[in-house]
Design goal:
Layout lengths: L1 H14 L18 H20 L4 H5 L9 H20 L2 E4 L8 H21 L2 H6 L1 E6 L2 E6 L2 H23 L8 E2 L4 E2 L1
Parallel strand pairs: 1-2
Antiparallel strand pairs: 2-3, 4-5
Length: 191
Amino acid sequence: MRIFLVFYLISTSLMSQDKLPFKTIPGAPDNITTGTSLARMTQGIGFRYYWATEGLSAEDLKYRPSEEAQSMLETIKHIYGLSNMIFNAASGKENIRPLTDIPQDYANLRKVTLSFLEDASLLFLNASKEELTLMKVKFNRDGNRSSYPIWNLINGPLSDVLYHTGQIVSFRRTSGNPIAKGVNVFMGAKN
């Protein structure tokens, strides 16, 4: 059942290529559980990322605050890897490192990142209590395997995506292209 859900989520995300998720945050769940909390945090991240990356120009993507800092595009690629890690934890997959097959064109990179976040939030939302207790953040680095509790997603990749999305907001403001007016992160909508 779980494998079917993962394939269904991926295929529906890829079919809706022209409509990206998280322009708004979905309605709140009726109750607070581990799954709904992880899902809501992921949805909030998706919303922030959607608007932080909406309408970026080629010039914006090249922006870097200093010689040593990552460019905006390099930061977005890093967020892609983090969103992949979140999705892999939700779907029971290992994170193979070093990460390969990162989309090189910006539009596809953004779309896949948002799809990973959407699919992970749906998996968290629909997971049973038993499934959630079995979820792990798993790594495979050249055959060296490690595994961590699902809670490490909160202090690890979920927090990192928030951190780096804030960098994108700052970078684009500095490069002269601030996020759209009316984006309300508290309400999860654009006015």
